[in-house]
Amino acid sequence: MNNNKTVQRVVKTSIIAALYAAITIALAPISYGPIQFRVSEIMVLLAFFDPFYIVGLSIGCFIANILGPNGLMDIIFGTFATFISVYAISITEKFVKNKRASLIIASLWPTICNGIIIGWMLYYIYQLPLLLSIGEVAIGEFIVVTVVGVPVIKLIQNKYEKLLLNL
């Protein structure tokens, strides 16, 4: 029985990683570069419901960045930024007592982490002004994860709560 559970977890992790990578690559023109709207980042909010998703999301980001245009720096720093973001998302509920506010607060971690880490990386790669790079990435993350992602996740949570917990 324990073996079966391990296989299920590996399969679920692989599916999450594949979805993240596929969405990112399919939308490559808006997923990479100085101004980016990585739609797959909506999925990082899954870590709010179960830290199990951290691995799949980080692997998905790693794969997407291997196939992306920004090379080794994005593979390292992009994956690191996603890992830090999803980890922070997964522990937010422990520190925020207001359940309604905790998802919104959790959704801000990608804006902060990716804004700083990816903003710095893009500043370095493209020689753009640092604050402009940080701001562009942060705005893209905020729009995708907080403005779009939170309502999408709330809709899924309200209609299909068991789905989020049983993925």
Automatic annotation (TrEMBL):
Keywords: Membrane, Transmembrane, Transmembrane helix. It comes from the Bacteria. The chain crosses the membrane at residues 15-35, 42-66, 72-91, 103-126, 138-156. PANTHER family: INTEGRAL MEMBRANE PROTEIN, INTEGRAL MEMBRANE PROTEIN-RELATED. This is Queuosine transporter QueT.
